[in-house]
Amino acid sequence: MTTPVVGIDIGGTKTAAALVDRTGRVLERREAPTPARSGPEAVLDVAARLATDLLGATAGPLGVGTAGTVDPATGSIRYATDSLPGWTGIPVADELATRLGRNVRVTNDVNAAALGESWAGAGRDRAHILLVAVGTGLGGAIIRNDRVEAGARGVAGEVGHLPAPGAERLRCGCGRHGHLEAIASGSGLAAAYAIETGIHVTGRTVAERAATGDGAAQRVVERAGAVLGATLAGLVALLDPDAVLVAGGAAGSLLPAASAAYSAEVPAGWADVPLLPAALGTDAVLVGAARLAIDRPHIEGTNR
User: Fold this and answer.
1) For the chain, which has fewer Cβ within 10 Å, the N-terminal or C-terminal residue?
2) Which ranges in 67-200 belong to alpha helices (H)?
3) The model scores a pTM over 0.85
């Protein structure tokens, strides 16, 4: 039997590691809270400890999907938000390689999720996909022929910073107003609901209230989904994928309106390109990180 590999998912609230077989199936997993406020060394130590529990059954390198912008040539963090304080500049690939005694390949977590979905999820058997991850923020990744398109700075596919109608009064995570992330994300739902009602709740709560008939929440969710769907229809004409996948915790609430807007707006030449929910859930980053570790790099200019 072919030896399985280990994938690691480092997020702002939790870190996970999984043993993944060569078909993309998760065999075992470990999970722990991310000690983000204790600093990068503590975060790396937790990731290494979780991986160590699984490495005995493996050979060769392991893969990591992490929050933040990753330099594809070195596996270092070019930029990270305050969800992982001090993470910017950390040479994650080298630090984990030293701790684990293995080569380590690192990519952004949304890139890893796209790799996982293209290998063993909703994008299986599709050569070209666009994945959009709708969570607290909004991220994206592009897969071409089993490879992540990294771009010149390792951040190709960041659809969240496209201008979006209806978001003019909403602040994006980058600090500016009017971006897609500012309206079509968990934080966007929360901000729009607060403007409409004066009530401050989480994006998850907005989605829950919409599902139970709250009129203001329904308007916020439908507006966000419609903007997302229309934007994705335009991106299909630009990128020409085989499929568009929507992942993340806020995806379910936005997909109905997004699907309707997408169908209405997608150009006729791309009418056969489906908009699909991602299939792997929280395992997507782990499976994609494992894929990164297999054979040669699956991202342009990949470290190690």
Assistant:
1) N
2) 92-100, 109-120, 180-183, 186-197
3) yes
